[in-house]
Design brief:
- By secondary structure, this protein is mainly alpha-helical.
- It is 72% helix and 0% strand.
- Helix 1 crosses helix 6, helix 4 runs antiparallel to helix 8 and helix 6 runs antiparallel to helix 7.
């Protein structure tokens, strides 16, 4: 007596939604190109800036390309949201996935997963390029502190992209989202400087980039606690996006 054919494994609604989001990111050309630019731009600047002025911290100088990588991470986090919610696209999404919390979580998880992999590749390539450019073993993959920077690079870029996704969900406008996030991550640290005292240390970029430094910086934050501050900023943006999404018609 033959056994009946087994049914294909059933996926939970969240797993199915994540699979759909992953497929979308991997097949839409603007998203694929932006994702590819994350490691390319980050690593390409290692040769240009590895021997530049790093304030006495060669590891931070080697990972200066994260400044460019985070811009592409912001663009990806923005496009993943605005490209889907533009026009009546939001209505189509919620017809396919009626539970908005699942749709939102799936979008964030798919974005974070792709950025984490791209960030790890960016960190490894940056470390290799910096080692070749400077000849300094302290910035190469064989150094434990350099590996911390590699992992920190991946987490930093992932959190930057999630921050952009949260802001984009709130604003639903790509240009406005990039204006806000670029201002907060790039311009605000230079504008605030030392005028606000210790407050400037808790800005997302200033705190998050501590994980890329070999030398400790004066202040209450260390490499991982600084990255935790960036995670709090990203969580606030994601939470604000969910609060706004929950109250919309579409």
């Amino acid at each position: 007596m033959t056994n009946p054919p087994t049914a294909p494994p059933a996926f939970s609604p969240l797993a199915a939604a994540v699979r759909a989001e992953r497929l979308r990111i991997r097949t839409l050309r603007p998203l694929v190109l932006t994702l590819a630019l994350v490691p390319l731009l980050t690593a390409a600047t290692a040769f240009a800036y590895a021997n530049g002025d790093s304030g006495g911290d060669p590891l931070y100088g080697a990972f200066f390309g994260v400044m460019f990588g985070q811009l592409t991470a912001l663009v990806l986090g923005t496009l993943v949201v605005t490209g889907q919610l533009a026009g009546d696209g939001g209505a189509h999404v919620f017809l396919a996935v009626p539970r908005r919390g699942i749709a939102y979580a799936a979008r964030l998880l798919a974005t974070a997963g792709h950025l984490l992999l791209a960030g790890l590749l960016a960190g490894v390539l940056t470390s290799l390029c910096a080692r070749l450019a400077t000849g300094d073993p302290a910035v190469g993959p064989g150094d434990a502190t350099a590996w911390r920077a590699v992992i920190g690079c991946a987490l930093y870029l992932t959190l930057a992209g999630l921050l952009a996704s949260g802001v984009a969900t709130w604003l639903r406008h790509g240009v406005a989202t990039l204006s806000v996030t670029v201002a907060v991550l790039f311009l605000l640290p230079f504008v605030v400087g030392e005028t606000a005292g210790g407050v400037a240390r808790f800005l997302p970029a200033t705190a998050g980039q501590l994980v890329l430094r070999a030398e400790p910086v004066d202040g209450p934050l260390g490499p991982w606690t600084g990255l935790g501050v960036l995670a709090l900023w990203a969580a606030l943006a994601v939470g604000a996006g969910w609060w706004r999404l929950r109250g919309r018609d579409v």
